[in-house]
Design brief:
It comes from Kitasatospora aburaviensis. This protein has 334 residues and is α/β, with parallel strands linked by helices. The chain contains twelve helices and 15 strands. Strands 4, 5, 6, 7, 8 and 9 form a six-stranded parallel beta sheet that branches.
Length: 334
Amino acid sequence: MRTKAAASAALLSLALTACGADIAPAGDAGAPSGAAAHYPVTVDNCGTRTTYQRKPARAVSNDIGITELLFSLGVADRMAGYVMPDDKGGVDEVAWKDGYRRTPWLSKQRITKELVLEAGADLVFAGWHYGFSEADGFTPKALAGLGIDSYVLSESCRSGSGPERGVMSPLDALYTDLANLGEIFDVRDRADRLIADFRAQIAAVPQPERRPRVFLYDSGEDKPYTAGRFAAPQEIITRAGGENVTGDVADSWTTVGWESVVRRDPEVILINDYGDTDAGAKRSFLKSFPPLAGVSAIKNDRIFVLDYADLVESPRNPAAITALAAYLRGAAAG
């Protein structure tokens, strides 16, 4: 089963606060008017005050959720292209299909300095483990040395000096990025409408009397790759009426041991569908893996599938919550 998230542009109005964005002073009476007066703009991005001198004209995004955040804001005309593997699901039916049609697909491989220079990028939107990498030398600092601005996905913010990620709840990360990008691209009104619409969609999801225990399975056989407290599935599961069995792990996407999964006895397994191993193959592995044979989700065949783009920070998150909630209500009742 797959969800097809649609970000409506309902004319809802909500004053957004505490999202970390503010506009630098416009200056005196002789300052330029209109769009030019909006800049420079400063936002708080992963704890760093970052200033943008002008509206991006040739932004490059990395990965599907990040790309769709820009498409949802209607700034495809300000993009030089996007980088994305072709294993993240179809995009022909998504709400932002026109953005994909209008925007160059620069590469199906990893994003690099050479690629963004060739594209003439003036801003790169990526994240740690979503393109930015010290090992590859592709970092916001390296891009600044080339005269290219960057913006870091808030879901991927580092929580300290180590590799752990996550400094805010996942939905706060989504709202923060929409608000910040709204300022950076001077489309804050549209960003506020999206945030208000997403909040309303999520608030309308009924909560069950009993919360089924849910395990997010991304990949891995020796050890499973899953979602901790700061990855998007934490709030997707919670707001859908479930309990993430690895929600006590203070990290974003991370690896745990099978022993801990078995001990917590998930009642539902949520599969992240992407990659060379599709959801059917992942389901077959889980159902045939001996250590899981006694787990409630396997015994009762309660396995639900969402696309990768539903389960990383993206404008598909509210619809993913709605879809999973409907499944969990059945699981809780049964």
